[in-house]
Amino acid sequence: MQKDTADKTSKDAPNGPRSFWGVLGGDGKLSNLPWAVRAIIGILFVALLILAISAIYLTVPPGEEPGVAINYPQEWDFGWDVIKAIDSGVEWVIITGDPLFDAIRAVIVWILVNFRDFLLWLPWWLVIVGTGIMSWRAVSRRFGIVSLGFLGIIALMGLIDLLMMTLAITLTATLLCVAIGIPVGILAARSDRFEGILRPALDAMQTMPSFVYLIPALMLFGLGMTPAVMATMIYAIPPLIRLTNLGIRQVDASVVEAAKSFGATPWQMLVKVQIPLAMPTVLAGLNQTVMMALAMVVIASMIGAEGLGTEILTGIARLEVGRGFLGGISIVFTAIILDRVSQGFVKKPEVKQAA
Question: Which of 34, 53, 145, 311 is least crowded, fewest Cβ atoms below 10 Å from its Cβ?
Fold first, then answer.
């Protein structure tokens, strides 16, 4: 008796996700029809829908508005009221938080100016040779030669100073991402509730068009280098948070239990066990963050960021194709070097760990 009941229950239970026809038919009978019959039903459904819409249009007298049956009612449009409310809220935030925004601006400008001055102070030949040596040690001898060639081309095109400015913005944004993203990722790894709250925010940050990040940066900091860095940081920080969280959560549970059995405190567990084992994943997130920060350079130039992005923007504005091409290819060369070198540093801990 129990076996018969179990068999009946297993037959009644849905097998995997239901198809569109199963959902449409309710009991799933439509999903068992031949594909030709289902195609005919679909065509008839679309034809009936078109006929219904055409009938609505035919009822409208010539020269008159279709009305609410077709056009959206204007009295339901509250867009302008929402715009005014948002503008009022932004104005209140700017006035109230002016001391805080001034402090943030001062910190960012200090970091950025020091990075820029240091990079511009370095001799051009030392930048090229140093990058070649670093590429050789991090990746391979062949890529070290390729890096020398890439930077040599950028120098010959007269764009080495603009490259240093671009790197200053990228490094400043990356430094802020590390200072904020890694602690937030650690908190997300230690709290499922915090991760559940954080995940939708990260999803929204990664799916929004990059131009959208210029709006809050502009409204809080105006034009200049500071909003460019802030927009770049907001755009580039999600991968670092996600992969820091993922790396700590993927640490082997047996290793964590062994550390607990030896009397490790939560802080010792985090610093001496979880973070070292999660470091390859964290560095992979840092690699993605650097790439996304560099990808924001051209867009950030629209609000005052100096560097190679300005060359591209000027080339577009003046229809100077050559100028835009040189700026674009220089960014491509820089991205390749940063990507391969940062990937090389990601692989180093994995090799040491395996050894």
Answer: 34
